[in-house]
Design brief:
The chain has 184 residues and is mainly α. Helix 2 packs across helix 3 and helix 8 (143-150) crosses helix 9. 33% of the residues are buried. The chain has a two-stranded antiparallel ribbon. The protein has helices at 20-35, 38-55, 64-78, 80-92, 101-110, 116-124, 127-137, 143-150, 154-171; strands at residues 5-9, 12-16.
Length: 184
């Protein structure tokens, strides 16, 4: 059982797990860094916890971890245009230098050799589908946790993930870019 601290901010009483920042900052930072960049992650990860403090945590909405991932995903969405431009630029790059942040992201997503078509396919996914893929692949969230993070049913998560996998497979010449098994 998590004991919550009651804090006051702007005249409101907030219920926050006492170790919220310490327990989740590194993981949230890592997720954002994989989606965007290390530099952006520094600021956005801090913004996640500011937003969490401002909004307060309601245990009725579910577990803290998916809630924080939901906040992080919403903040990443603000940077979506830059993210899409980055994916498209990667897809046009003939060679990779092996030391770039984008290489690390895509290596993790595919768990194999990175190719330009994957970046292009990720950029071509609908935002909701891309968010589901990246929450599963980079955040390691289950279908239920992704659903909680995005405020959608777990069945919708499964549908989006299935649709995205098919689109990614087609772009890669019927190569499976993600593991088929998942907790759902």
């Amino acid at each position: 059982m998590i004991v919550h601290n009651t804090r006051t901010w702007a005249g409101r009483r907030l219920e926050l797990p006492p170790d919220l920042f310490d327990a989740h900052f590194a993981e949230i930072h890592r997720y954002i860094a994989r989606r965007l960049s290390e530099d952006v992650a520094d600021d956005l990860a801090a913004e996640v916890f500011v937003a969490a403090l401002q909004g307060g945590y309601d245990p009725a909405i579910g577990a803290v971890r998916p809630w924080l991932y939901g906040i992080a995903t919403n903040l990443v969405a603000r940077h979506r245009r830059a993210e899409i431009r980055r994916w498209k630029a990667i897809s046009r790059t003939a060679e990779r230098d092996g030391s770039g942040h984008e290489d690390e992201v895509l290596d993790r997503v595919t768990a194999a050799r990175f190719t330009g078509p994957l970046a292009g396919a990720l950029a071509g996914l609908k935002r909701g589908d891309r968010d589901v893929v990246l929450l599963v692949a980079l955040g390691g969230l289950s279908h239920a946790e992704v659903g909680q993070a995005l405020g959608i049913p777990a069945g919708t998560v499964g549908s989006r993930l299935n649709r995205a996998r098919k689109q990614l497979r087609r772009a890669l010449g019927d190569v499976n870019p993600l593991k088929e098994d998942s907790d759902g």
